[in-house]
Specification:
Elements: E1 2-6, E2 9-14, H1 17-30, E3 38-42, E4 47-51, E5 58-65, E6 68-69, H2 73-80, H3 86-91, E7 95-99, H4 100-103, E8 108-109, E9 121-122, H5 145-157, E10 174-177, E11 185-186, H6 189-192, E12 202-208, E13 220-223, H7 224-228, E14 234-243, E15 254-255, E16 285-286, E17 291-293, E18 295-297, E19 316-317, E20 320-321, E21 328-337, E22 343-353, E23 360-363, E24 368-375, E25 382-383, E26 391-393, H8 404-419, E27 423-424, H9 433-442, E28 450-451, E29 453-454, E30 466-475, H10 480-483, H11 513-521, H12 527-531, E31 536-542, E32 550-552, E33 557-559, E34 569-575, H13 576-587
Helix pairs in contact: 8-9
Length: 600
């Protein structure tokens, strides 16, 4: 007997599990049993699991019977004439929804030509094996799977036109591409997903060649002329908020230019951009750490006796300043109330971002890279017809990555741009490569997409034919302006006295074991002295017992707790982190001793 479970609860047993499973599926196809019911027979456990619960991922498949698909050419005609809908296909038992458990026992064909007598189902379209963003990648069936995943990720990170009412919104971290375009080469899901209303890239001319070694290791070479004509130009928006909070005892925050008596008052220069109401005016140019909203708050801690203290009753400065490494222009200043009725000020700062060395770009095929050099237009190579590429891509990025889809898109984009039409690049159902080559020949170009090019520096003809065409390129949100990080001295942690972490807080840059080895290998080992003394401290060590001694700075007196004051005490420079370790060992009841080998 085979046990039957409904939603993981045992309900009974059946004698013939295969007949039972077949009968249930037939009844479901006839509509006698709900279409949300799924059944999975597990022969290795001799169990049948019936699932009716919510939250399962289910997908539609075409039913195959006796080696033939139930979905025929007649159904297609009826659908085209609007005589049949999706619901009718489910009602007539042509399509059914299957969950992950039932799919384990199903044998699914990718297309009608693959069907054999053993098959139970067929995919509605092979494209359904891809997700929404992955299906936007053109010619996806010519690309490697891991690169498709990367291409999918790149599309999510691309700058584009995310919403039309961006000026009415205060979104946290916004990048807006100035001249977004719809791609020449696109898949059928592009319009279906309304992606054409939110374009996130530009059609550019790309040449596959090396340029003076500046596009080594996935780097790309950009044409300065293209950048001056607004290629990949974007604006970065960042909001800043301030609220007039109410505290217990009737105390409130005040927005305005702080008084000189306020605790923590900055220099007068810091408040230069504020108007009389304590707010910055729109279109003001701000630098890093500039005050944009002037604000004072009541003292932090109010004790019982503090009423009579003048120092405790001083208000403190709590103005909002721009973040480290952030500059720009004030785009908008909004004065409003929040849900608690407190006055709320919102200031949006914008910054024009022009592509620079270190900014990240990518194609839709997972071929990402950073700008290695920006070349003056006069020095860029050009074709016999005078076309200068916007971007030079390294040919070495193709063989190991096997992104053939990247190469096909260049030819397809070229054919589309020359004939003034969009090219269907849908996975498994795209325009054929033969047709694309044929259309290039008809327009007077080589069918393989290569052209004769000339050096922009010397004017000489290049000895090889260069693969050149049109491609949809994405500018990603990873910009060097947001990642640049350096520090001299600044805030330190209380416990270890080492610099704090994080770029936003103005933290330090950690130098690890491997970085240390690199400096030693370069013969710059003296640099380590400066690198490794971020928490330098001096301690006094007793030469007799090796324990830490005491130094009384006021009386200039040195002594050891164990040996007294008639012993030699030495001053030693160590890292504070090591001193902390010694202290923690003492807390465990272990007495660490330092043996000083060489004093001179």
């Amino acid at each position: 007997m085979t046990d039957v479970f409904i939603d993981q609860r045992f309900v009974g047993s059946v004698e013939n599990p295969k007949v039972f499973a077949k009968k249930v599926r037939e009844e479901r196809q006839k509509g006698k049993i709900s279409g949300t019911v799924n059944l999975a027979y597990k022969p290795e456990l001799n169990e049948i699991h019936v699932e009716t619960s919510k939250g399962r991922v289910r997908r539609p498949l075409i039913i195959v019977e006796n080696g033939k698909s139930k979905f025929t050419a007649e159904h297609i005609k009826k659908i085209e004439k609007n005589e049949m809908t999706w619901k009718d296909l489910i009602k007539e038992g042509i399509i059914e929804y299957i969950d992950a458990a039932e799919e384990e026992g199903a044998y699914v064909a990718l297309s009608e030509t693959d069907i054999s007598p053993e098959h139970t189902h067929m995919e509605i379209s092979p494209t359904t094996i891809l997700g929404l963003t992955t299906s936007l990648v053109p010619f996806a069936n010519y690309g490697q799977s891991s690169r498709l995943n990367r291409g999918s990720k790149a599309q999510k990170q691309a700058l584009g036109f995310y919403t039309a009412n961006y000026l009415q919104r205060m979104d946290t971290d916004v990048n807006l591409l100035h001249y977004p375009q719809n791609p020449i080469v696109r898949s059928f899901t592009y319009e279906m997903s309304a992606q054409h209303r939110h374009p996130a890239g530009q059609n550019i001319i790309i040449a596959l060649m090396s340029y003076e070694g500046y596009n080594m290791q996935d780097a790309i070479v950009l044409n300065q002329g293209s950048i001056q004509r607004s290629l990949a130009r974007s604006t970065y928006f960042r909001p800043y908020n301030a609220e007039e909070l109410r505290y217990s005892g009737g105390l409130v925050d005040e927005i305005g230019i702080p008084n000189k008596e306020v605790k923590g008052y900055r220099a007068e220069h810091d408040y230069r951009l504020l108007e009389d109401d304590g707010l910055i005016h729109p279109e003001a140019t701000v630098g890093e750490d500039d005050v944009i909203i002037g604000k004072t708050s009541p003292p932090r801690f109010l004790g019982e006796l503090d009423e009579f203290s003048i120092a405790a009753n001083k208000r403190r400065e709590s103005s909002i300043t721009t973040k480290n490494n952030e500059v720009g222009k004030v785009d908008a200043v909004v004065i409003t109330d929040n849900e608690e009725g407190n006055k709320l000020i919102q200031v949006r700062v914008r910054h024009l971002r022009i592509p620079e060395i270190g900014d990240k770009f990518a194609s839709r095929h997972g071929q990402k890279g950073v700008v290695g050099i920006i070349v003056p237009e006069a020095d860029m190579p050009f074709t016999a017809s005078g076309i200068v590429p916007d971007l030079i891509f390294s040919p070495h990025s193709i063989p190991s990555r096997m992104t053939i889809s990247h190469l096909i898109e260049i030819v397809a984009g070229k054919a589309g741009a020359l004939s003034g039409r969009t090219i269907d690049g849908s996975a498994f159902a795209s325009e054929s490569e033969k047709d694309l080559r044929k259309s290039l020949v008809e327009m007077g170009f080589r069918e393989n997409g290569t052209e004769t090019m000339y050096s922009g520096v010397t004017g000489e003809r290049l000895k090889v034919k260069i693969y050149v065409g049109n491609m949809y390129y994405l500018r990603l949100k990873h910009m060097v302006a947001n990642k640049l990080h350096a520090r001299a001295s600044g805030r330190i942690q209380l416990l270890t006295r080492q610099p704090i972490e994080g770029r936003a807080k103005g933290g330090g840059l950690r130098l690890g074991e491997m970085e240390k080895d690199c400096l030693v290998a370069h013969g710059a080992s003296l640099l380590l002295k400066e690198r490794f003394d971020s928490d330098k401290t001096t301690i006094h060590v007793c030469e007799e017992c090796g324990m830490l001694a005491v130094y009384d700075d006021f009386r200039n007196n040195r002594f050891c707790h164990r040996c007294g004051s008639n012993v030699i005490i030495n001053v030693v420079e160590i890292s504070y982190a090591f001193k902390l370790l010694l202290d923690e060992l003492k807390a465990l009841g272990i007495a660490p001793r330092l043996k000083l080998r060489n004093k001179y």
